[in-house]
Write a structure and sequence with these properties.
Rossmann fold, 186 residues, five-stranded mixed sheet, 2 domains, alpha/beta
Length: 186
């Protein structure tokens, strides 16, 4: 059985062409025989090329990414992905970290980095909650700006009066999609 080096590259938006090109260049430089690429946010639930990558890799293969955040969006997601790779007998290499899960040190480093990342995120969320609580106590926190959904009755009224979609958008200061959403039958 021959093993393959498989690459996965991702950028958050189509505007990040240079970032994608840099990842592709780095993956080609380490000898990736096949590279899967996509331009979607890591928070999107659908990442079809990542799923295709995970389906494609076989026992003995190595999956290579340039950075850990190109692959996983959270520690939970990282554990899920590495679990799938491990179950298939596939190793993971992260170029920016010189991390290789085919070594005991690489496995340890991956777990430590993921844990540290999750810890940092929890601290950030805690600080955010503390800041919001303080702002509320001082009467400075007003919460979220009212959504367009709260203007749905006005949208329907204006439409019934014969106003155009553009006129409603202009008058209420909401987006066209919000107007169409408000006019959609329940």
């Amino acid at each position: 059985m021959t093993s393959a080096i498989i690459g996965y590259a991702r950028t958050s938006t189509i505007d990040q062409t240079a970032g994608l090109e840099a990842q592709l260049r780095d993956l080609e430089a380490v000898g990736c025989q096949r590279i899967f690429k996509e331009q979607v946010s890591s928070v999107d639930t659908k990442r079809p090329e990542l799923e295709r990558t995970l389906d494609y890799v076989r026992e003995g293969d190595t999956l290579v990414v340039t950075k850990l955040d190109r692959l996983a969006r959270s520690m939970t997601h990282l554990i899920e992905i590495t679990g799938k790779l491990r179950a298939k007998g596939v190793e993971l290499k992260v170029l920016a970290l010189n991390l290789d899960t085919s070594t005991p040190t690489g496995k340890l480093m991956l777990n430590l980095l993921g844990s540290i990342g999750e810890f940092e995120r929890e601290l950030m969320l805690e600080r955010q909650r503390d800041g919001i609580a303080k702002a509320k106590a001082e009467g400075k926190y007003k919460g979220r700006v009212p959504t367009a959904q709260r203007k749905a009755d006005d949208v329907r009224r204006l439409k019934a009066e014969g106003k155009t979609i553009d006129a409603i958008v202009q008058e209420l200061g909401v987006s066209r999609s919000s107007v169409f959403r408000a006019l959609r039958p329940s």
